[in-house]
Amino acid sequence: MAAESERVDRSSHSMDKSITLPPNEIFRNLENAKRFAIDIGGSLTKLAYYSTVQHKVAKVRSFDHTAKDTEDDPLYEISMQEEILARLHFIKFENAYIETCLDFIKDHLVNTDTKVIKATGGGAHKFKDLIEKKLKLRVDKEDEMTCLIKGCNFVLRNIPHEAFVYVKHADSEFRFQNTHPDIFPYLLINIGSGVSIIKVESEDTFERVGGSSIGGGTFWGLGALLTKTKRFDELLQLASKGQHTSVDMLVKDIYGGSYVSLGLTGDLIASSFGKSATADKEFSKEDMAKSLLHMISNDIGQLACLYARLHNLTRVYFGGFFIRGHPVTMHTITYSINFFTKASPPMYLLNKHFFLNLDPNQYSWGENYAGSSGLMSTSPDLNPMQRARSGTFDMLEMDRLERQLVNLPLLQDPSSYIPDTVDLSEDALAREYWLYCFEEALDGVVKRAVASQPDLPEAAERAEKFRHKYLHKLQTLRHQPFAYGSLTVRSLLDTREHCLNEFNFPDPYSKIKQRENDMALKYFQKAVKSLEELSWEQRQFALVRGLLAGNVFDWGAKAVSENLCVVLASNSSPALNDVTNNELQILTERIAAMDPVIQSAVKEDRLTLVQSGSSSPCLDLSRLDKVLAGVVRERHTDLVIIEGMGRAIHTNYYALLSCESLKMAVIKNSWLADRLGGKLFSVVFKYEVPLDKKPTTLDHVPVTPS
Questions:
Q1: Residue 246 contacts by C-beta under 8 Å, 6 or more apart in sequence?
Q2: CA-CA-CA-CA torsion for 243, 246, 251, 256, nearest 10 degrees?
Q3: Strand pairing of 347-349 and 316-319?
Q4: Mean pLDDT by 10 residues, the chain (706 residues)
Q5: H or E stretch at 40
Q6: Strand partners of residue 80
Q7: What span, in angstroms and rounded, lies between the C-alpha atoms of 90 and 398?
Q8: Are 486 and 418 in contact (CB under 8 A)?
């Protein structure tokens, strides 16, 4: 290993030129890093740090309308304010780059007060002196297995599509799985230099039940001896091009075909590298790498089956640097498990990161798509534009959310709930259309962003940076639909919002919403009066038309309003022109001042405004504000109304609830209308009653995500 250190020292200057480490791309916000942790394995280094990010938010504040006639004054004022956001950064890179990266970190550390860096992994001892010398931080060792399990629990809880199943030759080879609300128990097969097999029963209860010395280090070491290739990713590339049958001895090579009585097909490997002992020829590097990869992957797959059966576990996760999202590796492990058992297919972890010693249950976290590199293919043919970086650095960013998110208590089966109606990674036609649609809409979004900040001359420059970043994300998804997990309309919208926030455009539609709310308020009393003049049946149609048009909920009829208890759930943060909870609070206060029915309902808590916990035009019912979930439970809600194309069509169209539900939307997209068998501006009005319940009367507690 001393020779390796000498090689790094001698080549450090040239290495600086061969890899690019811009702070806005890899070690982002390093100047505001507060806590550090590092995991140094035999092959890869994983660095994590906690930073605070200063970003702009759009705040609304009600004017004082009591002192004078304010008929022409706006309902509220909008101001841009600075807020501090907590963010976790995870970066993975090969150990060969550790000195270059430490130099880079040292040069960019500015505002950190920390004197300690938490360290784990076998390399923590080896590189201890180097880390302390470079960063001037004391290395404090942590238990490796504890960090590993806490990290896995953290990502399984906070990244909805963290785990995926790999299905070779399917329309979508990466099938992302919804994480069960109760993530325990599970078996973790961690494949680093060797293999550790851990049974995890709870947040703090786990046990290493087995392992093997034959792992990723074996593949790398033997591969280097066989092919003279020193880079791990290059070995994987060789394996992806090889034919293992020229090196491996198959069942048919011994028996002339299948061994039917034993259930062995002719193409099954009987002996890895079996032909190399007798064949009088040279084998290609590609074929030897492929044979080696099959041999090790098959061995690990069989071990996993045996331990899962021994401990009666059906959830098996594979993680570690050996996987790397590599199709051949995952296919071989999957094939091996399918061969030895009929249990559930193995699941692979998109991100496996150690933990930063934060309380995992105190906050909810969400991935920041603007700063995450995603799952990049190791094949140069799939995405050549990503190849230069993806083989060297992987990044994940997680933002701490203001509110804790939980399941909607009314989901029939939270474990089978899938928010999104269409998985674009599986539907090629839908994927091509929506990627084109979002790309075509980009000019309009850029113009809207600039127009929202007319007094800031640098807004145009920031908007162009947003355009470049989001377009790059869309182009990546064209090549690799699985790059950031499950690809849906919701994820495309969320990624766009994250990129807008990245360049300080927190609410491009704020002025439009303000103007429309002001106008709607002026017509409120006239609208209520006209509703009171209608018959009961006519009122119901007017209610539906008004709701679909985005108008105020009908409180015009006293007989109805007095028997209703309504919870209005709206976005916690801006997304497109959707109303936020803050805006809705101000709007409701003004309406209550004008209308005694509304005033009474607010005062008696029959009209309650609650944040949904969402900052998206869509809605994930498995990640709702904890307060909202509590209100739903306490008030025995028996009707949920979901309104809008994003919340009721793109998401939740097939959601099954334990109470009555009403999903309403106007289809404002011609392609989607055609896909659903309707016409542009058709209305979806989907009323559903659980099979075990009968329709009830007007004694409802509607929850309306606005």
A1: 275, 283, 284, 287
A2: 120
A3: parallel
A4: 34 40 77 90 85 91 65 82 93 87 86 86 90 92 90 90 86 81 93 94 95 94 95 90 96 95 94 91 95 96 95 93 85 89 81 61 89 64 39 83 94 94 93 96 96 95 98 93 90 97 95 90 90 90 78 37 81 93 95 92 94 96 96 95 94 96 92 91 91 55 49
A5: strand 33-40
A6: 58
A7: 9
A8: no
